[in-house]
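DATA SHEET
Item: assembly model
Revision: 1
Owner: S.N.
Input lines:
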Amino acid sequence: MQQNLVNAAYLAASVLFILGLKGLTSPRTALRGNLLGATGMLIAVAATLLVRQIVSFELILVGIAIGSVVGVVAALKVPLTAMPELVALFNGFGGGASALVAAAAVLSPAMIGDVSRIQMYTAGVASAIIGAATLTGSVIAWAKLQGMLSMQPRGGVLHTINFVCIAGALGSGIYYALDPEALWVFWTLISVAALYGVLFTVPVGGADMPVVIALLNSASGLAAASTGFVLSNNVLIISGSLVGASGFILTEIMCRAMNRSLWDVLSGNLGDSIGSSTDDVYQGRVKSASADEAALILEAARSVTIVPGYGMAVAQAQHAVRDLARRLQKNGTRIRYGIHPVAGRMPGHMNVLLAEADVPYDELFDMDQINPTFAQTDVVIVLGANDVVNPAARDDPNSPIAGMPILDVDKAQTVMIIKRSLSPGFAGIPNRLFAADNTLMLFGDGEKVVRELLAALDE
Amino acid sequence: METLIISVTIFVLAVVIGFEIITKIPPTLHTPLMSGSNAISGISVVGALVAAGAGKDEMAAYIGLGALILATINVVGGFLVTHRMLSMFKRKN
């Protein structure tokens, strides 16, 4: 009877999770969706406390108290600019929790219901491998985003070690599933998987970070689903597979937006930087403009599109950008923001930053929506983006980024590029756009240049 | 064997539903989607509660405690930070 009640609660929680995700299909319903998800979680937790195996509550209280305090502080105190780091870390905690639950279950099979041994040990091994790798991989991703580890992509010898790790983890996994008495094998496989998590994240370069975060997101879901198979618990299986699917789709979208395979991203492979040298592309053709000159052009513009990139996050320029947009709107100028799917360090990074600066989301347009508008746009301001506006991706089949979908900003009447210098972006190649006839370079720190533009407009 | 078949059925159906819903989520909401779905993956908190509270095997209980702390951070922090982000998404007045 009691178990039926718990199962009914789990069903309700699963339905709420699905409805919650459905709420995220529109910004208008998203907040309610998130609340539905949280309610589902509350129901699932409350129902679990009724489960008959639970006899002692001391550890539970301790765990919930510590976890809640850390969670609340992290969620409310971390600045929004540090969201990629926080999301990466939370992914890791989810994976780590699933791996530990699987570990506890194989140590103490009494907590498991009606599951065959082979299912339990196979799923336990899967959960341990995925969860441990997700935890350490996320910690490395976090350290990279924090700037504590290099963002340079690198491949080479790490590859070989990675293969050894996967083989080692799978090998010990099979061994353990066949001989569950050998607990040391289980710990070995967790350690090897943890090492693999480190090694697969270390080679990944900065601009590839969105792919990795999405992938870790997917893995945290798969780990939860595997743990669901260990415990034969449907709410874990359902939620885990929802999240697994979600992260997988995001990974797909990010890879497609860079025209790179998941394999290239994980191995730190960049296309060979042959093609034209910096001197050929730029020699004497780059025009720079002062804030006053640029302000004159902006004053006359009827439509302006702002294209932000990771540089906007670095310069913390989103508030200045919003002020500039409002100033131009007062002038009657139509403002749009064009956002490339991989702008920033995680999916949707720019959207969150601009939302924080009170930019209404109906001014933000994604790549497919904004590209047809550039030909009729008077001015495009590119702020801290580089490779995603490089026309070589579209026009030069020999370019290392050939085929990557880009924002066609070069089709606008005037392109203003706010950038510190002519240094290349992540792909390490020169950008012909900087030397185009309709391009003006505004050199300097993003925030400072935008403020100068504002001052010049007000004169 | 029968439980396995039921579990696999549920798994496959949930993946299909996931694909159907997630492909309709606009890029603007991709970050809240990640943090929100991540909070949902903290559902292993349910298993952690059982492990920490079953009181049979001390080792398993302490591992359960570790899992419970991580999962609670994930759940509480994840839903809260998603809420914080989503409350900033506004339309033009």
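QC remark: Chain A touches chain B through 120 residues (CB under 8 Å).
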